[in-house]
């Protein structure tokens, strides 16, 4: 069974991705700080050992090498990595605390890059593997109050393209998924009127669901996507069309 690590797999988009990949036949390690009741239920519902909770705080960048080493020693090499965990802290840049800016860049940019560094090594040795980075349409459009978040999400796109070139010859694909707005804990503070505006601006006149993003990741992890790398799959109900 192929192992896939999904960061931020305890709820929201990451949980939907983990459930989909488990249904696709992967062994899933859902990384997060706290096991949610929803993840607990998904672990119970899946065949034994297929869905697993991996407790870890990604702000502890220095501990990432040990995390990957221990996971590999216990369960074998990783076939796939989904860099999904992120903070969605908003705020006008001129008023934002520097500590908040640093937290965002650390969790949304540095942690996934370092996690990828250690996870990709065994994929390179195996001559196959998949990395999927969850970005956002905010990485290439704009949204007032999300400049730092937008910077981190754009960074994932640049990372995806260059790493795809670096590891392609070793059989590893690297892609990004850029979702539009979805209802999750990250966006819980958004007003209904703003939600309605986003839907109205989208070609399909509706919002994206976490399962739409899980479907895109499932494709990129599958054998059908063996010749897809260095690309960005936008899943936004036509918001940026
Ligand atoms: N929601 C949207 O509208 C939207 C749109 C476009 C892109 N995205 C992207 O989709 C991804 C998932 O977003 P979401 O809406 O599902 O967010 P969410 O509901 O806030 O979930 C975030 C996930 O990240 C984990 N996480 C947060 N801090 C962590 C830390 N320090 N260490 C380890 N795990 C941590 C959380 O688990 P714990 O709290 O247990 O640690 C949780 O599983 C993000 O990359 C986001 O940028 C979301």
> How much strand content do the residues show?
15-25%
The overall average pLDDT, rounded, is 97
User: Helicity, in percent?
Assistant: 40-55%
Rg over CA atoms, rounded to whole Å, is: 17 Å
Give the class from helix and strand content and strand pairing: alpha/beta
- Compute the number of helices: 7
Outline the biggest β-sheet.
7 strands, parallel
Q: Based on DSSP secondary structure assignment, what is the total number of beta strands?
A: 7
What is the third-level CATH name, the topology?
Rossmann fold
Strand order of the largest sheet: 3-2-1-4-5-6-7
Q: What string gives the helices and strands in order? A: EHEHEHEHEHEHHE
Number of domains: 1
Which ions, cofactors or small ligands are bound in this entry?
NADP nicotinamide-adenine-dinucleotide phosphate
| Backbone shape | globular
For the termini, the CA-CA separation is 38 Å
State the CATH architecture.
Answer: 3-Layer(aba) Sandwich
Structure overview:
The protein is α/β, with parallel strands linked by helices. The chain has a single domain (3-235), classed as Rossmann fold. 44% of the residues lie in helices and 17% in strands. The protein contains 7 helices and 7 strands; from the N terminus they run βαβαβαβαβαβααβ. It has helices spanning 12-23, 37-45, 64-75, 98-126, 147-167, 192-201, 210-221; strands spanning 3-7, 27-32, 51-55, 78-83, 129-134, 172-179, 232-235. A 7-stranded parallel β-sheet has the order 3-2-1-4-5-6-7, sandwiched between helices. Helix 1 (12-23) links the parallel strand 1 and strand 2 (27-32). The longest helix is centred in the middle third of the chain and has 29 residues, at 98-126. The chain is globular, with a radius of gyration of 17 Å. The model has no long low-confidence stretch (mean pLDDT 97). The site of NADP nicotinamide-adenine-dinucleotide phosphate (NAP) has 27 residues, from helix 1.
């Amino acid at each position: 069974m192929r192992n896939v690590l999904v960061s931020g797999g305890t709820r929201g988009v990451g949980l939907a991705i983990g459930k989909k990949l488990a249904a696709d036949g992967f062994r899933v390690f859902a990384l997060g700080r706290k096991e949610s009741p929803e993840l607990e239920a998904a672990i119970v519902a899946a065949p034994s050992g297929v869905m697993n909770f991996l407790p870890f705080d990604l702000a502890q960048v220095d501990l990432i090498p040990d995390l990957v080493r221990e996971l590999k020693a216990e369960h074998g090499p990783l076939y796939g990595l989904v860099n999904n965990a992120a903070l969605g802290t908003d705020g006008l840049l001129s008023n934002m605390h520097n500590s908040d800016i640093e937290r965002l860049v650390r969790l949304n940019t540095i942690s996934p890059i370092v996690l990828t560094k250690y996870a990709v090594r065994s994929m390179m040795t195996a001559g196959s593997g998949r990395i999927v980075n969850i970005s956002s349409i905010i990485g290439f459009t704009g949204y007032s109050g999300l400049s730092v978040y937008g910077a981190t999400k754009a960074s994932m796109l640049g990372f995806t393209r260059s790493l795809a070139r670096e590891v392609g010859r070793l059989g590893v694909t690297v892609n990004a998924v850029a979702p539009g707005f979805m209802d999750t804990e990250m966006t819980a503070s958004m007003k209904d009127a703003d939600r309605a505006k986003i839907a109205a601006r989208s070609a399909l006149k509706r919002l994206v669901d976490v399962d739409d993003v899980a479907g895109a990741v499932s494709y990129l992890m599958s054998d059908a996507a063996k010749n897809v790398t260095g690309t960005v799959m936008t899943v936004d109900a036509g918001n940026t069309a």
